[in-house]
Amino acid sequence: MSVEYELFSIRISDSHLLNIMESKGSASRGELAVKKMLKSKRGISPILATLLLIVIAVAAVIVTYAWVMTFTTTQTQQAGAVLTEANTRFYNVTSTFNIEVTIMNSGSADAKMAKVYFGTASGSLQELTSGVNFDPPSKIVSANGGSLKITITQTWQPGTRYYFNFVTEAGQSLPFNHVAPAYS
């Protein structure tokens, strides 16, 4: 049975033809190169294969490390200020109704309050532009346990649920709600 190969537009009928052509001196250089390639059973050495696998593994580790570092840096920056409502106190001083809110920052970055929203329904909060005092007046909640006391002068009724939303300059929002207690 005769097997034919076609490589580089040269038809080769079994490799024994090349042997015949070579022995007669009629084989061209291209034909000899094809013969040598067909007979070659060599691959890459085991040492080279091992080195290649190590290089691929190291490259994969470097790419993964770069991605993880970029991702964690981005997430850490976004979570720099971690604000929580520490205390809300409703009180009445000589017919002046006040609500005192203390906000704590347990994050690693300062936060500056920009807007205060207040209302009796979460979907219809109104921005308060007056009747709001900040202590300290800089409106900054310092990082690592700092606090900001916000006093809102607003009429309130006992037993009514009030909704608050404090927004920082960075756009971070702190929404919460409380039911006003009985007059004290």
Describe the protein's architecture and organization.
With 184 residues, the chain is α+β, with helices and mostly antiparallel strands. The chain has three domains: 1-42, no CATH class; 46-78; 83-179, Immunoglobulin-like (Sandwich). Helix content is 29%, strand content 38%. It has helices at residues 16-24, 29-39, 46-78, and strands spanning 4-7, 10-13, 83-93, 96-105, 111-119, 126-127, 132-135, 140-141, 146-153, 161-168, 173-179. Strands 5, 6, 8, 10 and 11 form a five-stranded antiparallel beta sheet that branches. The longest helix has 33 residues, at 46-78.
Number of strands: 11
User: Order of helices and strands, N to C?
Assistant: EEHHHEEEEEEEEE
Report how far the terminal alpha carbons are from each other: 109 Å
What is the tally of helical segments?
3
Give the overall shape, derived from the CA principal axes: rod-shaped
Name of the CATH class of the largest domain: Mainly Beta
Domains counted in the coordinates: how many?
3
- Approximately what portion of the residues adopt beta-strand conformation? 35-45%
The residue ranges in which pLDDT falls below 50 over 5 or more consecutive positions are none
Largest sheet entry = 5 strands, antiparallel
CATH topology of the largest domain: Immunoglobulin-like
Helical proportion, percent range: 25-40%
State the CATH architecture of the largest domain: Sandwich
Category by helix and strand content: alpha+beta
Mean pLDDT: 82
Rg = 39 Å
